[in-house]
């Protein structure tokens, strides 16, 4: 006999509900609070969240909570149990009024001793969606609806065209994976995640039906007889995501004597994305980050500095994982060099970000890659909200007295490299270690020293005096900034000089005679 579960039965959200009301892990524009029940307003907002115009991962409609200036009014007004039961039935009916049909995940729950209803409107798999202009029986018209900031509006002109163009594109992390089954998801990993984010669903997860649990977390799709996990579920809740997404890993490679030397150590981190990321961060914090304390002679005060800001590295590495392509078979690579740390990932920043903004560290994209992955990482406090990561990184670097990072990409945005120079107080150590790596040059009977990279620059100029700084950087395998610094150093020492303009001129090697290489 089929047992009917009352619609008003309490269901806990897979996120921390306090964080939802403070927008700690879900941006305000993805939240809408309504004290009462207005079917037309709810239907339009459901339509907008389902269309997910900015690829943010849908949104939440909270019924039973008033709103003022876009913020919830607490304590909540609440709904009666009878109203919650009725509203859920109406929401099911409203879902059939959308074209194509769409239904949110509903959570009747209790907050501050009041019954409320949370509608989690996930990004739809069959967008774009249309909603009736009116629920009146006479209405025959439908419109597309989207979110503009924290407001639901009808899509017009350019927005409607853009919505239709993106119709066939479901973000990769939110796609159903037909090569896997629900049995490939690990209950232990799911429960561990729920416990870490302090979700009340953790208590229920061990005893509720596993399919129901996966559906409540939007980890699966398809009918019950052919249910399949979504890619994001396999990325986080399968012990070995690499079998589905090859090279999903973080490689940390340490070059203690620089890229020129043959000595290096490599540590590879694999596994569920959030665990892999935490393990790689723990390695950086324990094995790479170093502290230096400078005590002042005339008092008890001391100045502390780290060779690298851990907070800045954490933000950069988490964003590299968040925004990487899981379809590209390349790892996220962290290179630890004597005087810098370089984080390399594929692909580069979204094309909606102008190159001039990248140069001044303004990386605010219109489209967000892997928004579902981002939501999980935000719940775990591994990433920040929209557009706040870079400011947090810069603040951390300034607090430590570290130089600003340098971002590198190409015009096709095929990669992104973030270079973090070492703290200035550690440069003396680097220079002292570098004395063993210089090359002696005898010029007119006088021994002068250049580094191995500077020697490579001289050799390259001898072969091609018109070579550009960019080509030199690629040839040697160092950054454009370091290439410019080495060129300036060689000019100052008198080894080379520039003949003609910066763009149309060429290099000339001055001190070549008498070299002992």
Summarize the structure.
By secondary structure, the protein is of the alpha+beta class. It is built from 17 helices and 23 strands.
Explain the overall architecture.
This protein has 517 residues and is of the alpha+beta class. Helices cover 33% and strands 21% of the residues. The strands form 8 sheets. It has a 6-stranded mixed β-sheet with strand order 13-12-16-17-19-18, covered by helices on one side. A hairpin with a 6-residue loop joins β14 (291-295) and β15 (302-306). α9 (273-288) packs antiparallel against α10 (310-322) and α16 crosses α17 (480-493). The protein is elongated and about 90 Å long.
Number of helices: 17
| Strand percentage | 15-25%
Spatial order of strands in the largest sheet: 13-12-16-17-19-18
What shape does the CA trace take? elongated
Low-confidence segments: 1-8, 435-447, 513-517
Secondary-structure-derived class: alpha+beta
């Amino acid at each position: 006999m089929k047992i009917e579960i009352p619609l008003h039965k309490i269901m806990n959200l897979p996120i921390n509900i306090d964080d939802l009301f403070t927008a700690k892990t879900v941006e305000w524009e993805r939240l809408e609070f309504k004290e009462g029940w207005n079917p037309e307003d709810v239907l339009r907002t459901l339509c907008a969240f389902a269309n997910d115009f900015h690829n943010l991962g849908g949104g939440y409609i909270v019924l039973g909570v008033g709103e003022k200036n876009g913020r919830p009014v607490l304590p909540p007004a609440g709904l009666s149990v009878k109203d919650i039961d009725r509203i859920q039935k109406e929401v099911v009916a409203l879902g059939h009024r959308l074209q194509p049909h769409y239904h949110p995940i509903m959570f009747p729950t209790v907050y501050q001793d009041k019954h409320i209803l949370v509608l989690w409107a996930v990004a739809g798999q069959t967008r774009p969606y249309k909603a009736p202009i009116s629920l009146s029986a006479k209405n025959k018209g439908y419109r597309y609806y989207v979110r503009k900031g924290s407001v639901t509006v009808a899509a017009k002109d350019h927005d409607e065209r853009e919505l239709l163009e993106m119709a066939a594109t479901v973000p990769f992390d939110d796609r159903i994976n037909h090569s896997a089954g629900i049995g490939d998801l690990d209950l232990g990993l799911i429960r561990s995640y729920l416990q870490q984010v302090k979700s009340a669903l953790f208590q229920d997860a061990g005893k509720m039906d596993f399919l129901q649990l996966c559906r409540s977390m939007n980890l699966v799709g398809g009918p019950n007889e052919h249910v399949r996990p979504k890619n994001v579920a396999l990325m986080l809740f399968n012990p070995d995501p690499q079998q589905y997404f090859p090279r999903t890993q973080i490689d940390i490679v340490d070059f203690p004597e620089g890229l020129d030397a043959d000595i290096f150590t490599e540590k590879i981190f694999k596994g569920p994305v959030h665990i892999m990321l935490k393990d790689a961060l723990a390695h950086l914090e324990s094995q790479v980050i170093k502290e230096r304390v400078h005590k002042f002679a005339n008092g008890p005060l001391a100045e502390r500095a780290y060779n690298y800001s851990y907070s800045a590295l954490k933000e950069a590495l988490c964003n590299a994982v968040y925004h990487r392509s899981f379809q590209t078979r390349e790892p996220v690579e962290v290179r630890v060099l004597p005087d810098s740390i370089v984080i390399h990932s594929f692909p580069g920043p979204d094309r909606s970000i102008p190159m001039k903004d990248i140069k001044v560290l303004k990386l605010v994209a219109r489209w967000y890659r892997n928004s579902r992955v981002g939501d999980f990482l935000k719940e775990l406090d591994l990433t920040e909200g929209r557009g706040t990561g870079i400011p947090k990184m810069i603040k951390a670097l300034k607090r430590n007295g570290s130089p600003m990072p340098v971002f590198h990409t190409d015009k096709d945005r095929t990669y992104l490299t973030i270079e973090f120079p070492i703290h200035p107080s550690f440069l003396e150590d680097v220079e002292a270690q570098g004395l063993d790596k210089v090359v002696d040059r005898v010029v007119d009977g006088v021994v002068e020293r250049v580094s191995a990279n500077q020697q490579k620059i001289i050799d390259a100029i001898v072969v091609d005096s018109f070579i550009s700084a960019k080509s030199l950087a690629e040839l040697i395998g160092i950054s454009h900034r370091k290439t410019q610094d080495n060129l300036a150093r060689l000019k100052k020492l008198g080894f080379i000089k520039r003949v003609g303009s910066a763009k149309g001129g060429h290099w000339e090697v001055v001190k070549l005679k008498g070299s002992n290489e």
